[in-house]
Design brief:
Structural class: alpha/beta
Radius of gyration: 17 Å
Strand order of the largest sheet: 5-9-8-6-10
Strand content: 25-35%
Distance between the termini: 21 Å
Shape: globular
Number of helices: 6
Oligomer: single chain
Order of helices and strands: EHEEEHEEEHEHEHEEH
Largest sheet: 5 strands, mixed, barrel
Number of strands: 11
Length: 239
């Protein structure tokens, strides 16, 4: 049964969904990493596909769009309406730490935020958003096996891309936050509320301490291939 923002049918999605932000990146992943990939949703240009890995595991890939409201909508509907149990966000990020270099993979075990996302639940405290422990542990284990440079820890999900305070990031860096993106907190919160599993893997494509270090278009594709391969290895255990 289609949901308000996903026009797939019941059974169209696998139990595991890989979730990049960009719809065209979702298309590239489906065409590059999955066999017999079928387009299952295209509402508002947000593309979703289901296919099979090289080892025959059925899984899906669908874009989230940008920002917490967008991934909040799509992850909620996937969890609630389409029987999805696991969502692995695969995105890009800016590094806050000198040791997190271009194309290293960040495994977000926890996520901090400057958003008021959790105000909807009227809590009398601060909710600490975290990945599913088993998913995160498997990602670390597989990264080691694949000799992928990785860093596991806390990241920041920000509501603002063009920060009016160019020095603001340093406050988070002092707390050993690894880097910044804009979606994972809402994904982890939805997974917690709905008793599902979630993980965020990020490829470093620029570094706040080294402004000259920026990935080119060609380099992004090569670097993202490593992260996608890691995500698939982890995801196959849950298909």
């Amino acid at each position: 049964m289609p949901s308000p923002h996903i026009n797939a049918k019941e059974g169209d999605f696998g139990k595991v969904v890989l979730m990049p932000g960009d719809p065209l990146r979702a298309k590239w992943i489906a065409e590059t990493f999955l066999k017999d990939a079928k387009l299952v949703t295209d509402v508002r240009g947000i593309l979703g596909y289901t296919g099979y890995t090289e080892s025959g595991k059925r899984m899906s890939v669908m874009a989230s769009g940008m920002g917490m409201p967008s991934i909040g909508i799509y992850s909620h509907e996937l969890y609630e309406h389409f029987g999805v149990e696991v969502i692995i966000r695969i995105g890009t990020c800016g590094s806050y730490q000198s040791y997190a270099n271009l194309f290293d993979v960040l495994i977000a075990t926890t996520v901090s935020t400057d958003s008021n996302w959790m105000s909807q639940y009227q809590l009398n405290g601060t909710f600490s958003a975290g990945a599913d422990f088993e998913l995160a542990s498997n990602a670390v284990e597989e990264a080691k096996k694949m000799n992928i440079p990785y860093h596991a820890g806390n990241i920041l999900s920000a509501d603002v891309f063009y920060d009016p305070d160019p020095e603001n990031w340093k406050k988070w860096a002092k707390l050993n936050v690894l880097g910044v993106e804009m979606e994972s907190y809402a994904l982890y919160a939805n997974a917690a509320v709905m008793n599902k599993k979630a993980l965020c893997l990020l490829t470093v494509t620029d570094n706040f301490l080294k402004p000259q270090d920026k990935a080119t278009v060609e380099q992004r594709q090569k670097g993202l291939s490593t992260m996608v391969s890691l995500a698939i290895k982890v995801a196959e255990k849950y298909c």
